[in-house]
Amino acid sequence: DKETIATGAAAAAKGGFTSIACMPNTDPVNDNRGLTEYILSEAKKKAVVNIFPIASITKGQRGKELTDMADLVDAGAVAFSDDGQSVESSQIMRRALEYSKPLNTLIIEHCEDKNLSSEGVMHEGYYSYLFGLSGIPASSEEIMVARDTILAQEAEANIHIAHLSVKGAVDIVRNAKKKKIKVTAEVTPHHLLLTDS
Question: Any coiled-coil ranges, and where (predicted)?
Fold first, then answer.
């Protein structure tokens, strides 16, 4: 069964949540005013918790062309993310951060250099070698976290780095915070518990 706004909201309420943010990695992708307004309309009719839509940074989450961020904020989007995918183009990410500042909104970034992670299925290290599985090097995440914090600093914009999974990325965020860069980050439970350390 596919999750709907009503079933997702009900599950959140059962888990004790009063408010949730819905990510844009849906079918269709939340990358336009009409879909953002639809989410809010359905939430008002069917949801038992508050729902805050997060819109896609790029059209179709393809990383090629920015969405109309001002229009999406006007429609009710509270933040922007290409959830589960990095914005590979530094120029597009820079523009997204520049646009986000006057809109007083947040960019949420999944940091992964696909050129390095390619066919990787787990963290590169002892266990990936032991099991003969393609590993993802820590540098895949670290490079993008460094890039995005530098771009956020240049734009004086807010950025949230989603689901950090390597120590080097945590160090980069820590150093960025010392420089007063407007960066936040989080780690998921499985990235803390299901590690090879």
Answer: none
Distance CA 58, CA 93 (A): 9
Alpha-carbon distance of 29 to 113, in angstroms, equals: 22
Q: Which two tokens stand for residue 101?
A: 């500042």
| DSSP-derived secondary structure letter, 194 | S
The whole-number pLDDT of residue 158 equals 98
Contact between 105 and 80 under an 8 Å Cβ cutoff? The reply is yes
Residue entry with tokens 């590993």: 135
What's the CA angle centered on 27, arms 157 and 188, to 5 degrees?
55
Q: How many residues does the chain have?
A: 197
To 10 degrees, what angle do helices 138-155 and 90-103 make?
40
The reported pTM is: 0.94
Contacts for 99-102: CB closer than 8 Å, 24+ residues apart: 99/66, 99/69, 99/70, 100/69, 100/155, 100/157, 100/158, 101/155, 101/156, 101/157, 101/158
- Show the low-confidence residues of the chain (pLDDT under 50): none
What pLDDT, on a 0 to 100 scale, did the predictor assign at position 98? 99
- Amino acid (1-letter code) at residue 31: D
CA distance 139 to 150: 16
Helix (H, G, I), strand (E, B) or coil at 191: helix
Distances in Å between the Cα of 27 and the Cα atoms of 17, 56, 145, 158 are: 24, 12, 27, 27
